[in-house]
Structure formats: structure tokens, C-alpha cells
Amino acid sequence: MKNSILARRYAKALFAVGKEEAAVDAYAKALSELAALYANTPEVKDALINPMYPIDVRVKVIKDLMQTMGAIQVISNFMTLLVQKKRAAFLPEITEAFQALVDEDKNICRGTVVTATALSPALQSKVEAAMATLTGKQVSLASAVDPAIIGGFIAKVGDLVLDGSIKSQLEGLKESIKGSV
User: Domain of 136?
Assistant: First the structure.
């Protein structure tokens, strides 16, 4: 709980600077790349958060990394601050909170659609359009495949869940048959 509160605070501060500079999308992209590097490269994670390395060494590492990546100066300063304040471990949560702020600002909802087989891009667009009509927001859906649902789809956007899967329909039919006996 404490981590998510801290992550939101840092994300809000960076978002405010991004709005002021009209660079929110660039910041989101840079944060996303950094979070992916942090998550996928154990050496980077270790260099930024391992307490065995002095803070000045960790700061030098992040500055060199930012220079190598050609990062925006604000993002470089932000990452340096995270390292100095021993908050670099919160980078994935900060990135997630920042993206949520960007999505809210752009009136975008993110969700998932689960199907038994992979969706074609045209069908995914139709599902996104239907969910956009229901939510009143632009919808971006990530696809997942789960053969256990047999057919149909399950779409989730925020609190809204549309379950049109054959599996749930069969379970409902089973329950109604049990109830009528």
C-alpha cells in the first residue's frame, strides 16, 4: 500500500512537469523503456537498488545509463532523484501510475479481451468499439488466449466485465438445471 502511494506521488509530480512542458507522451515512452530495462536486466536493477553500492556510485551509474540511452534531461534528473532517495525499486509502479495518469488525461481505458483463439485485428477493433460505446471512453484492449473458455470472449475494462464465453453460458445452464430439479 505504501509503495503505491509513493509511486503515485512521484508519478503525479512527473506528470505535472510533463503537462507543463507538453512532453507527457515522451516521458511515458522513456519511463516505459526504463521500466522494461529495469525489469529485464538484473544487472541494472542490482546497480540501482543494491545497498552494498554507495549512493554516489549508483547515481553515477544512472547518469551514465541516461546519457547512453539519450534520455530527456527531465527523465535523467527524475531517475537520479529516485536513486538518491532510494526509490529506484519503485520504478515499475511509478511507470504504471504515470501511464494511468496519461490514460486518464486522454480519456483512454485499458483492458483485456480473452478468447479461445487469437483475435483478428478487425474483430479486436470491433470489440474495442463496442466497449468504447459502453464506457464512453476510448478503449485499448490487450488480447489473451485461453482455450478453457471454449468459445466467445471475456472483455474486461475497469469494473466492466462482459462475459460472452461458452464456458460461462454452460455453467449458467448447469446451475439453472440444478435449481429446477
Answer: 107-180
